[in-house]
Write a structure and sequence with these properties.
Elements: E1 3-6, E2 9-16, E3 27-30, H1 37-42, H2 46-52, E4 57-60, H3 79-92, E5 98-103, H4 105-116, E6 121-127, H5 142-148, H6 158-170, H7 174-183, H8 190-194, E7 200-205, H9 214-218, E8 224-229, H10 241-252
Parallel strand pairs: 3-4, 3-5, 5-6, 6-7, 7-8
Antiparallel strand pairs: 1-2, 2-4
Helix pairs in contact: 3-4, 5-6, 5-7
Length: 256
């Protein structure tokens, strides 16, 4: 993967050209906690789908994840700093405006991108994150403890076990993930959300206990709409075919 420098860190990214006639601006995809561009976006088919729809598709491995640098201090993972990474990548690639899609922690980062650089974000998709963008922070702090536990077998909580097992399967840097959980728990106020004027799609699985209500969040945006991803939990919603179809329709909409 190529790399770029952001905030003194070397971060990895991908840049996939459109495989069909160009249809709209580039789209940048921002992955969730303990995942990577490969696991969150390429393997579930998002990169191929959006490329085939005529989009240039940008992904990055967030700091602390994948092939990117992995600082071990919580302050390195403040959400505005992580949003700055994605915005800096777009700037380095000469992209003035893009559609932005994030999942879970990546959705939080994406919302901060829209707040920090409103002229850069044309349309915004927040997957796996509902009202917990405002009230609470989604993943519990105990996941940091799970990353630091001596063994998986020492953990009894199902969510702690799930994330620890996932980190072990992917060979993740567990100290970096613990720091990320502790440092990336910023929320937006209703007033800040109301200041985001681009169209926003908020999509959450109906069996997702992590994200919070999609409809409650969508109502806070001036141009927000909610999508229920039926019968899907936080993990399985990512690759849902109805979610994919709704996102393509939303991004391709020419409505002002």
């Amino acid at each position: 993967m190529p790399t770029f420098i952001s905030d003194g860190l070397e971060l990895a990214y991908t840049d996939t050209p459109p495989a069909a006639e160009v249809n709209g601006p580039p789209v940048i995809l921002v992955h969730g906690f303990a995942s990577s561009a490969l696991v969150n976006w390429k393997q579930p088919g998002w990169v191929g789908l959006l490329s085939q729809s005529g989009r240039r598709v940008i992904t990055l491995d967030n700091r602390g994840h994948g092939a990117s640098a992995k600082p071990a201090t919580p302050e390195a993972y403040a959400t505005p700093r992580m949003a700055g990474d994605a915005l800096r990548l777009l700037d380095d690639l000469g992209i003035l405006q893009a559609d932005v899609m994030g999942y879970s922690m990546g959705a939080r980062i994406s919302a901060f991108m829209a707040l920090q650089a409103p002229g850069t974000v044309r349309r915004l998709v927040l997957g796996g994150l509902g009202i917990h963008l405002v009230e609470g922070v989604g993943l519990p702090m105990g996941i940091a403890d799970a990353m630091e536990a001596a063994r998986l077998d020492d953990l009894a909580d199902p969510m702690q076990r799930m994330f620890r097992a996932f980190a072990e399967r992917t060979g993740a840097d567990r100290p970096a993930l613990a720091a990320c959980i502790r440092g990336s728990r910023q929320v937006l106020t209703p007033a800040q959300i109301a200041s985001i004027t681009c169209p926003v799609l908020v999509a959450v699985g109906t069996l997702d206990p992590v994200a919070g209500d999609a409809h409650a969040l969508a109502k806070l945006f001036i141009r927000g709409q909610a999508l229920d991803i039926l019968g899907r939990d936080h993990n399985l919603a990512v690759g849902d075919k109805n979610f994919k179809a709704a996102v393509v329709e939303f991004l391709n909409s020419q409505l002002s």
